[in-house]
Design the sequence.
């Protein structure tokens, strides 16, 4: 449970602020656009209109006592950068900033931004991988080329059991669980007959996962 | 290996097109802004300038034969929507579209968009969760409140072994692997002495994962 500020209330900033509040944190939402602040007044416990380029404004808002701040200003590079500088100068421990280009990223790095976020790039990579591997619904990289992957099943394998797929023997892949709707089947996973809509949660090396994806 | 078109070359569109090409696909990159197309000419095998609102232009580019198309136009709602309509009308099997609001999303749904992407919202959620759970470096939801999570370790646990943490007995959490740099330790994971910078890859229910996060 922490004290967070979000500066700039576009789609990204509004989402961060709302989610943090839902998770039980104290959130201060800030935007210079009074119309925007009025529109969002119902959504937030603490919301205020201010120009965050101004370090004195940041100080007056008490931002020096916050655990973290998110600079979510997009188009205005100057405001984004000046706000980042001001927050670090006030001693905010974690300042995360949305960047719009590699050059912007380099500047923010030098100014001490603790984490730099590129939403369009990060989701762009995920979209490309999802299009390329249509059966992969979600994944995390474990390093050493290992991934935990949630795979959709094709019709060809329904009515078999997971045991029939021989994931370990044929592909060197370990099955963690079978996901059916909102249910997770872990104990009888190998003997359960597969149905349409089921998903496999597996772990293995990329080359083995691709071999499996080819037969799905 | 497929045939993909990306319409609109902002940060998101450019990323999708580049990643798809790197993954070995045939990619056609399209933008109406000739300056943009000239700037990106070196980056893509196939890049062309065209106004994608015009269904005849889409047809002339042969888009009816593509496996999938990504509509990556941001600000211009009309262009985004007309392009989506045109692609579905040409029979492109998978049309994925970047949306800028819930209202835009509803319109795209009705027009038959196969997947609708909200980069600022999706990354906004991830940022909020990362700020709220600072030890969680990555995760996938398995359903039934189970998550696979990559956790950073705090200094308090280095020099213990994973076995000392008694993840199963104390927390009901299963350890999948220990991640050290780019290396994944799976076989001797329970007896390996933990070092600073190590990460644990675990699976368990959210309430148990939080209990673990509290002692890290
Ligand atoms: N100096 C400033 N002080 C406070 N707020 C600011 C300042 N400059 C810009 N903003 C606010 O930041 C918000 C987000 O900026 P902008 O709309 O440029 O970002 P965006 O990248 O398009 O947003 P998103 O992609 O998250 O929807 C705007 O509502 C704007 O009013
Ligand atoms: N009718 C059209 N035909 C082709 N390209 C178009 C059309 N309308 C807009 N575009 C292009 O789409 C590209 C992306 O649009 P825009 O810059 O509005 O999106 P954005 O959401 O700000 O981008 P991103 O967030 O991905 O950087 C622009 O380069 C623009 O030239």
Sequence:
């Amino acid at each position: 449970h922490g004290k967070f500020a979000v500066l700039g209330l576009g789609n990204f900033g509004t989402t961060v602020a709302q989610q943090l509040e839902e998770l039980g944190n104290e959130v201060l939402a800030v935007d210079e656009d009074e119309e925007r602040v009025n529109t969002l007044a119902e959504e937030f416990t603490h919301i205020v209109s201010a120009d965050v380029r101004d370090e004195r404004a940041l100080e007056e808002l008490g931002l020096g006592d916050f655990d973290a701040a998110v600079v979510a200003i997009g188009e205005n590079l100057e405001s984004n950068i000046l706000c980042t500088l001001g927050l670090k100068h006030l001693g905010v421990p974690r300042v995360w900033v949305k960047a719009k280009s590699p050059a912007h990223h380099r500047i923010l790095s030098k100014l001490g931004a603790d984490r730099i976020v590129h939403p369009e790039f990060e989701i762009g990579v995920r979209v490309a991988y999802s299009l390329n591997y249509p059966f992969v619904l979600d994944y995390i990289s474990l390093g050493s080329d290992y991934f935990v992957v949630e795979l959709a099943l094709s019709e060809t394998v329904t009515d078999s059991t997971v045991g029939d797929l021989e994931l370990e023997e044929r592909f060197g892949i370990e099955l963690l669980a079978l996901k059916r709707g909102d249910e997770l089947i872990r104990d009888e996973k190998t003997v359960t007959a597969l149905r349409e809509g089921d998903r496999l949660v597996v772990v293995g090396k990329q080359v083995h996962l691709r071999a499996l994806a080819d037969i799905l």
Residues 119-132 of chain B form the longest helix (14 residues). The radius of gyration of chain B is 23 Å. Chain B has a mean pLDDT of 92. The CA atoms of residues 171 and 208 of chain B lie 6 Å apart.
